[in-house]
Amino acid sequence: MSYTRLDLPQGTLDLLILKTLALGAQHGWAVAQRLQQVSSEALQVQQGTLYPALHRLERRGWIKSRWGTSDNNRRAKYYELTRQGRKQLEIEQVNWQRLTCAVTQVLESA
Amino acid sequence: MLSDLLFRLRAILRRDKMERDLDEELRFHFERQMDAYLGQGRSPEEARRRARLAVGGVEQVKEECRDARGTALFETLVQDLRYAARMFRKNPGFTAVVVLTLALGIGANSALFSIIENVVLKPLPYADPDRLVQVWEDPSGRGEGRNSVSARMFASWKEQTTMFENISAIRSLALNLTGEGRPERLRGFQVSAGYLDIFRISPALGRGFLPEEDQAGKDGVVILTNGLWQGKFGGDRNLIGRSIRLGNKSRTVIGVLPPGCPLPYEPEFLVPFVYGSEPWHQSFRDHRLRVIARTRPAATLPQAREEMKLITDRLRPALPEFMKDWGAVVVPMREELTGEIRRQLLVLFGATAFVLLIACANVANLLLARASSRRREISIRVALGAGRRRVLRQFLTESVMLSLFGGAVGFLLALWGIGTFNHWRPASLPPGLVIGLDFVVLGFAFLLSVFTGLAFGLAPAVQLTRSNLEELRGAGRTSSGTAGRGIRRTLIVAEIALAFTLLAGAGLLFESMLRLQAVPLGFEPQGVLAMDISLEDRYPVGERRVSFYREVLRQIESLPGVDAAGMATTLPMAGSTDNFISVEGRPNQYESGASTDYDFVAGNYFRAMRIRLARGRVFSEHDDSVKAPGAVILNNSLAQMLFTAEDPLGRQVRFVGEKWEVVGIVADVQQRGLDRHATNHVYLPQAFSPLSGSLVIRTEVDPSSLTEGIRRKIFTIDPDQPVSNIRTLEQIVASSVVDRRSMLMVLGLFATTALVLAAIGLYGVIAFSVTERSQEIGVRMALGATRLRILTMVLGEGIRLTGIGAITGLLGALAVTRVLSRLLFRVTPTDPITLSSVILVLVAVALFACYLPARRATEVDPMAALRCE
Fold first, then answer.
1. Order of strands across the sheet with A75-81?
2. Most confident of the ranges B370-384, B493-507, B733-747
3. How confident is the model at residue B72 (pLDDT cuts 50, 70, 90)?
4. Each residue's pLDDT tens digit, B773-801
5. What does the DSSP assignment read for B34-46?
6. What are the chain B neighbours of A37 within 8 Å (beta carbons)?
7. Which residue of A has its CA nearest to B32?
8. Residue B699 three-state SS
9. How far apart are the first and last CA of chain B?
10. Measured between CB atoms, which of B32, B33, B69 is closest to A59?
11. What gap in Å lies between CA B577 and CA B574, rounded to an integer?
């Protein structure tokens, strides 16, 4: 595995998961795949970080889970945003943009 | 927040389902990953292998998911506990040693804590106890002295104070109760009318004193304690209003105190203190009262002190010469009642804390030693995906569990210790206090156990989790590394230092005790029986009284086995009464006079006590009569002070307002206790005494065997005359040092425990080091090292550790033992002889502890050791 992988800053994965789930209910595998595709392979989410993150978000009440049938007819656990999760996504999105703006400004001014 | 908790709760309650779901979820992920590889055209085996590599350790992911779900805390706890229990069952010896060691430490601490909680932390059992104070006259004038109060001083205070809502004089006295079956001598108080109001106590039966009942003529009343009412009067409710004969005077019982209502110094009855009823009430010089008061709600202690100072200053012109600098001190009652024992308890608590620390260090060392044998196990668990923190927690769970076991056993030990304490019950405890275990103590023991577990578990746990895969790949026979050895040695040095400090404290007390016992008493207590006899008004001062006690003494001396019998006001070490004495005919009486203890004596007192006559003569029957010209005997100190180089014999002195002729000089007696300087003492003939006294009987047989015979003799002379408080003089002497002796015993016990624990610890460390170095030792021997050389090498290691520990401990002891200084006697806290003896003991014990492993080192077979390599 010799991809040049980016390390996600603390808490960023949560934001990305929320964003991915904003499109609709997904199971864990699909979330990982989607993040990988959308980021042009730059972000590789290991199951070791993905699932704990999903469970943590569920505990916080931002996403909820249910068992459904996947496209290949297997039982899979689907996650979707709760109302609270949607609010949280907006907040985090704004925060992220402000943060990156600020960081960029500092970096470019130097 | 709530939903979060509910989620966790559900996760815990439906654990099996959660686990199944997690399994399935991760399997789904794995299968999709495999599908993806299959889609790339790989063989099923290849796809499976790659998928497994891609997804990583399943167990680790599960663990983290559980963590994320918040159930991990609980689940791993159960797991850890099970695992720990298994470990303990597999090593019962190890577990027992650890649990017992901790039980000692935790038990001692819990017992001490419960005593401290009750004695020091709990308020006195009265309403608004913070406003209760005791007031003393202060000879130092700087707030340091505590002198009993003269009645006249008390009256002035009472008249002028505004800061106290109530102030009461207390005079202890013993009165004979007669006409109620067998005559009995009861201990009680004369008190001002407001006494019970100060404590906010009202009688359970009847009433308290009326304000006018401490006036002359209205004082024929008495209040009984519940204990006396139950014990002597069978709880008769009709007793209220009835008259009883107390102190040869008829008094109406007006009240009975509620049960379980302890008063300080535990009187059995209360009668009014009538100011002005006796001549000594008019004098500032005659100090006989204890004074208690309750401050007004708005008044503070400093305000009360300030006011007392003002009042004393106002009185100053009227005070006698020797009291010119005296002041008054106001002491919170709590401090008055618990001050001394509080200090001792805190010292002991410190000592138990030391023992616990040593126990912790020992257990930590044991765990460290065992840790090295568990390194492989840990490495494997880490390799299988256990997180560092997870392993750390496993270890801490184990140590806390051990510690809780220890705490449980320790709690039983504490129960036993407290039972013993209650049984032994030092005299200096506040009234009515029985130490019990309560939830506070239980909580203390529990918290202590948990903290203890964390404390001794941390070092090995941290050290263990540093191990990593490198070590697993390594030979597996790696030593525990220099870090572990470093911690173990630091711990053992700390143990030795702590043990040293405790030993030094115990040693200093022991030395004090020896020196105390070497103090010449001035009398011989062996084979002397003592009993109190109160003559009172039935035998008023006069010839009837003299002939009565003469007859008593004569009858007693006629008993077989009795050598001599006498009588005195206050026996040595059983109290003292003092007054002012001066030489007759000197221009300035107060300049040349002195304060002196005094005794009225009768019969063969000096012979019975074996007090040496230095010059002149003892009293004859002729002196002991109210009609005789007063004769006195001085002790050496007083004769020196009054007459220096002059000859005192035949000179006149003035005492209690009378003139007396000095007829003899006797040796000094330790009247006020072994640890005091010899005090001035004047002896006067018993005939002039208005006071009660004690009989002393020197016997040629076992003193206590004569008790009944003596009782019978007195009964035949006067069936209404009680004797009480029968004990031997040796018991009186012993009880004067009982506080010190018990302190020494308890501290000695702790110090010995500490020494034994430290020795075991040292043994463990050296033994372990020998095992670790057995190859090295084998090589050395193969290269020609003699057994002696090996022996000294190992012993040297132990002695080095002991030396560092002893030096550290010496510094600690120098800093800490000064808290003992009040209990020390003619020994400074830095006494070089004591401290060097302690070093010797420590080194001897250390040598012994190291000798066994050192001997084993010499028995290492070089061939076997080398073959292992």
1. A26-27, A75-81, A63-69
2. B493-507
3. low
4. 888 888 888 888 888 888 999 899 899 99
5. HHHHHHTT--HHH
6. none
7. A29
8. strand
9. 60
10. B69
11. 10
In B584-692, beta strands by DSSP E: 594-603, 613-616, 631-635, 652-655, 658-666, 681-685
Residue of A nearest to B55 (CA): A47
How far apart (Å, rounded) are the C-alpha atoms in residues B479 and B482? 8
B127: number of Cβ within 10 Å: 12
> Rounded CA gap, B83 and B314, in Å?
78
d(C-alpha B393, C-alpha B378), whole Å: 12
**N- to C-terminal Cα separation, chain A:** 35
SS3 B702: coil
Contact B61 A53 (CB under 8 A): no
To the nearest 10°, the Cα dihedral for B68, B71, B73, B77? Answer: -140
Distance from CA of A66 to the nearest CA of B (A): 11
In angstroms, rounded to a whole number, what is the distance separating the alpha carbons of residues B17 and B26?
A: 14
Q: Can you tell me the ipTM of this complex?
A: 0.84
Q: Which residues of A touch B28 (CB under 8 A)?
A: 27-29, 70, 74-77
Q: Note the pLDDT tens digit of each residue in B32-51.
A: 888 888 888 888 888 888 88
Contact B355, B107 (CB under 8 A): no
A18 in reach of chain B (CB within 8 A): no
User: Is B61's CB within 8 Å of A72's CB?
Assistant: no
Question: Which of B8, B24, B29 lies at the smallest CB-CB distance from A29?
Answer: B29
DSSP states of B279-336: GGGG-SS-EEEEEEEEE-TT--HHHHHHHHHHHHHHHGGGS-GGGTT-EEEEEEHHHH
Residue B718 DSSP symbol: -
Q: SS3 helix, strand, coil % of chain A, rounded to 5?
A: 55, 15, 30
Q: Is A88 exposed, middle or buried (0-12, 13-18, 19+ CB in 10 A)?
A: buried
Distance CA B42, CA B31 (A): 14
The pTM (predicted TM-score) of the whole model is 0.69
**Torsion of the alpha carbons at B411, B413, B417 and B419, rounded to the nearest 10:** 80
Secondary structure letter of residue B630 according to DSSP: P
- Closest-CA distance, A73 to chain B, in angstroms, reads 11
Whether B471 shows a pLDDT value over 60: the answer reads no
Q: Do B61 and A48 touch (CB under 8 A)?
A: yes
Lowest mean pLDDT among B221-235, B368-382, B658-672: B368-382
For B494-541, what is the HEC assignment? Answer: HHHHHHHHHHHHHHHHHHHHHHHHHCCCCCCCCCEEEEEECCHHHCCC
By Cβ distance, the residue of B28, B60, B69 closest to A55 is B69
State how far the alpha carbon of A65 is from the alpha carbons of A62, B10, B11, B58, in Å. 10, 14, 14, 21
CB contact under 8 A, A61 and B24: no
For A22, residues 6+ apart whose C-beta sits below 8 A from its C-beta are A81, A86, A89
Tell if the CB–CB gap between A52 and B31 is shorter than 8 Å.
no
Give yes or no for B59 touching A (CB within 8 A).
Answer: no
pLDDT of B557-599, one tens digit each? Answer: 999 999 999 999 989 988 777 778 888 888 766 667 788 899 9
Instruction: Report the distance separating Cα B608 and Cα B523, nearest Å.
Output: 9
Dihedral (CA of B517, B522, B525, B530) sign: negative
Q: Write down the mean pLDDT value for chain B.
A: 85
Picking from B392, B415, B167, B386, the residue whose alpha carbon sits closest to that of residue B294 is B167
CA nearest B826: which of B640, B667, B676? B676
Lookup result for tokens 């030593």 = B479
CA distance A54 to chain B (A): 8
Q: Does B69 touch chain A (CB under 8 A)?
A: yes
Say whether A52 and B8 touch across the interface (CB within 8 A): no
Please indicate whether residue B421 or residue B622 has the higher confidence score (pLDDT).
B622
